[in-house]
């Protein structure tokens, strides 16, 4: 279940992860890295954002959506 952006949890993010659905498997790895960096630089704009509690804080997980790629001007 996706969460809303939370400034409190965001301040405690220690790890970040990006989930790429199979529909975007044709995007080359270098482009994926660039897109991941842009998504995590502005997590409040991600369509599917989840905070996962761990021992040291939170892990931010973003699942890439077509809306995210459109917003970033990327082609799938």
Q: What does it look like?
A:
The protein is α+β, with helices and mostly antiparallel strands. It has one domain. It has helices spanning 7-11, 29-41, 66-72; strands at 13-19, 49-54, 57-63. It has a 3-stranded mixed sheet with strand order 1-3-2. Strand 2 and strand 3 form a beta hairpin. The longest helix is centred in the middle third of the chain and has 13 residues, at 29-41. The protein is elongated and about 35 Å long. The protein starts with 6 loop residues before the first helix and ends with a helix.
State the end-to-end CA separation: 24 Å
> How much helical structure, as a percent, in the residues?
25-40%
- Strand percentage: 25-35%
**Count of alpha and pi helical runs:** 3
Q: Major sheet, described briefly?
A: 3 strands, mixed
Task: Give the SSE string.
Answer: HEHEEH
- Major sheet: order of its strands? 1-3-2
How many domain modules?
A: 1
Record field, number of beta strands: 3
Would you tell me the overall average pLDDT? 94
Quick overview of this protein structure:
The protein has helices at 7-11, 29-41, 66-72, and strands at 13-19, 49-54, 57-63.
Describe the SSE topology.
Layout lengths: L6 H5 L1 E7 L9 H13 L7 E6 L2 E7 L2 H7 L4
Parallel strand pairs: 1-3
Antiparallel strand pairs: 2-3
What keywords describe this structure?
three-stranded mixed beta sheet; alpha+beta
